[in-house]
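During the first year of the project, the team set up a workflow for recording each protein of interest as an amino acid sequence followed immediately by a discrete structure-token representation. This format lets reviewers and collaborators read both layers of information side by side without switching files. As required by the reporting guidelines, we include two representative entries from the current panel. The first entry is reproduced here exactly as it appears in our internal archive.
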Amino acid sequence: MIHLNGMALLPQRGERLPRCGDGAALAVLVVCVVRFPGRWSVAGCWTAAALLLVLAFPLHLLFEVPAAMAGRPSDWRDLGARLALAIGGLLFAGLANARTPRRGPREAGYQLVPGWARRWAYTAVALPVFGWAVPHGLWVLGVPFGIPREQLDDIHRSLSTVTGVAITLVPPLAGLLVLGLTRRWGQQFPRWTPVLRGRPVPRLLAVIPAGVVALALVAYGVLSVVVLVGQVLSGDTPWSQVRDGWAVTATLLVFLGWGVAVGVTTIGYTLATRPTRGSVGIRRDS
């Protein structure tokens, strides 16, 4: 379940995580992928990767790990299990990619990303700034923007200033990385990069993290909205509380829109950089 927790909606501890039977099923899937390569086994591998990454809830780790390191009481077993799920998801994604038939060489040089993808990238950068950093920054400064004064006081009692600043700055700074999906440095390592300067950026190094983040953000937004609506309809959360704390409620839509924007941008990057058969690279400037 998900509950209203000061500055955001976060998953509660004790959610069901995969057990031994699930691990056995994943092991069988690995054997099938290795012994019986083909389209269906690769599709199953990608599905397992997506499920593990969704269950890991990377967004939960993004906020809870820094908060735990700052001294906030946390369930380290739960965090460790989620980290293991995330690693497992990445390993399954790597296995699926390794077993996928190659289409051909990737075009050399910078490949221009479609204009619609660039516009979505700008949206992905703007949403965490205006929809997250601005209200959270005001809360850190003591301004009850979109929330009752009592809730703001609870936030200041439960979170230190350092933790509040970190929570405020992490999403917009992470959002800037989305620009890499539409810029040259997302396809070629910059000149100032030691050893790797000028070399092509491995395609999956950009696609997999961006896809995971997009999936996590959309899942977080959808699940949070569904749970909140259910709480309002059941009477557990009064409508007046939602109205008085509209800035917190709006954060759910920010995450949902942010995930969609990152996902669409990732699709544009994927289309621009996909390998083709017998193609000759064309170097383009942004």
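The second entry, processed by the same pipeline in the following quarter, appears below.
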Amino acid sequence: MQQIRKIRPDIKGDTPWHYFLISVMKAYDALWQFVKDRNEATTSMAQLSIDSPMRSELPIYPSLPFNIKVCEALSKVSTSFNNMAMAGELSIQMIDILANLSTLARGDGSATPPNSPPSSPGGRSLLNTIADLRYLSVMATTPIEHKLCFGVIGTCFTLHYGSGKISDDMHETLQELEDSMIGNGKPQLETQEGDALKTHRECLIWISLAAAGALDQSELLSAMSMMLDQALEQYPDETSDWETLEKILKKFLWNDLLGKHWKRCWRKAKHRQSKAR
């Protein structure tokens, strides 16, 4: 529009037609400026650093090329989670959480210990991370990230409580976990957004074990048996023996504590399965 005005210096608004042309050019110029500013703002949001204060707000999905902070976080997580992030399926919030948990699971001392206060230099405590994940799970996330929230919540519980029982004040969160994963007695893993989740079969298995492991630590809920039994039925090839299942679980988030607990849960479910036949 600016070029048109340069080419036609005679358009000065002296006539109704000229006035109309000038108004149209101004409108198009304003529209272009709006689109340009919106695009710059969107790009800026997508490249927010991993420690941005927006981590507790709307999910933000980074675009390639990732900035340094995102790359540093991804260097701490498994290859499987890296691939999901590269495919645009993990938000900055989830990448941040997975990076911290992966560091904690490896036990190299740079992540926040389970009982550290939220203001500690290492970051947020595991219970605060659970609160973040509950918030994230009700936001507009990708289908697999929505499911992943509940698997990571289960992992946080097991990492925090170890082999002990989860306290009663966490009953609401565990009930929410059960309802989200099993709703009305039917497995929720692949009943919704089926096509979007088909490529994440192994991740869904990890989510099942992680969530079921937390429910197994509750004295008030018995849904763990239903959840894990359904997973064994839904994924028979991958869950029939522990060696095969262990290889899958290690592709995501794993350490010895988690592995021992999940193996106990798996053995219980296999025992129930054999008795039912």
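For the second entry, the following points were noted during internal review. The chain has two domains: 1-46, 51-276. The mean pLDDT is 79. Both points are flagged for discussion at the upcoming steering committee meeting.
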